[in-house]
Amino acid sequence: MFVDANGDEANYSSFWKRERSVVESASQTKKSDEKRAEVSVQATEAVNVEVQTSDLLAVDLKLPETVPASLEKFLSYAEPLVSKELQNNVNSHAFDGYDVSWVDELRSVTCLHTLQNTALDEQLQCTGLAWNCVGSVIAIVYGRYDHQDWCTHQGALCTWNVDRQKLDHNKPDFTLETPMCVTSVAFHPTEPNIVAGGYFNGEVVVWNLGADNSEYLVSTSEENSHREPVTQVQWIKDPKSRIIAKYELVSVSGDGKILRWHVAHNRQTLKLLNGYVLLGKNAPAALKLKETENDREVGVSAVSFSLFEPSVFCLGSENGGIFSCSLDRTGLPLADFNLSCELLRLVTSSVEPHQGTVSSVKICPLSGKLLLSCSFDGTARIYSINQDELPLFAVDPGLGFLYSAVWSLSKPLTFALTTGMLVSCALA
Q1: What is the DSSP string of 155-215?
Q2: What is the DSSP annotation of 259-317?
Q3: I need a surface site. Which of 237, 288, 314, 416 has the fewest CB within 10 A?
Q4: Looking at the predicted structure, is the pLDDT value of residue 107 above 60?
Q5: What is the pLDDT of residues 250-282, one digit of tens each?
Q6: Measured distance CA(196)–CA(232) in Å, rounded
Q7: What pTM did the predictor assign?
Q8: In Å, what is the CA distance from 52 to each residue of 18, 60, 289, 331?
């Protein structure tokens, strides 16, 4: 039998658990060798210096007591030469009759030459002029503006060399009679004897003024020519030419066509490369053309190519429209124009039109971004090409029709207009 009993206490120690020990310690990073310093810099001194020329009256000028040997050698060599030239000037008659004007003239434009061919029919009028690339020969073509029917009278091409000592103002140095009126003329950009022209019947011709005979160099064929008078011819650089510049000829006409020609000196005809046409559908809405006029040609009256982008050019039309165009424009060709090549569309944009026929357009030769135009409405305008339809500047000299406009080749925003007189304008 089990009974309750009280016995002594018994303790049993653990074989795996040991008594915990605690150790106190401290840790710190090693002392760095970094050094810090603060430095400030400030100017501590200011110096003012003034410079002025000395008063010559207060300077005592004296010749050196001894003359350097080098100066004596130079004078012994130079003095005879200078004395000889001075004596030659005394005996020379080069400036006889020359009157020195010590006062600036009030008039900025002076007429140097008045050229005319008195042997021609008085009814013929000057229809165009051009300077050659050297700047010494001016070519003037003659014709008439008042044709009522086919042209039945002769025209002429005349040239004067203004650098000649014995210049005859009433008789040209060279005269070439043409079978009909000449309506436009342009010298070659690099060959001073090559000149192109356009006839009233739409034919384009190229002459060599340096040849022994007076025959034309090349001309267009009957099947490849304009059907209206040629309003302008212009030489342009071939976009494909790289090292040696080659040039092509562009002609525009009242039939709305823009034709590109290759001039081959060994042939008697101009080779038609390609062509473009300006249609009524390209005209801006401000002209309010009828729908029946959309597919009709619009007469081209002026053309100007950019010197910075050879494929970019601008056109002026008989109905007052002004168009930006590109030779790189692609699209479906237009047919039924009776030419050996198909015609393409070329208009990229247009601007606000004039109220009369555009007589001249010129792209600025200094920037290539500004276009100058003038019109029979009596106004001249400046546009920003491919930027804004509205003109940047417009002026009405109040002198009636404006026939031509041209930029200055050296002064930006300076141009000249021709009407009954010459008008020069400067915007800056």
Answers
A1: EEEEEEETT-SS--TTS-SEEEEESS-EEEEEE-SS-TTEEEEEETTS-EEEEETTSSS--
A2: EEEE--TTSSB-EEEEEEE-BGGGS-GGG---GGGTTSB--EEEEEE-SSSTTEEEEEE
A3: 288
A4: no
A5: 999 998 899 999 887 666 678 888 888 888 887
A6: 10
A7: 0.70
A8: 102, 18, 74, 73
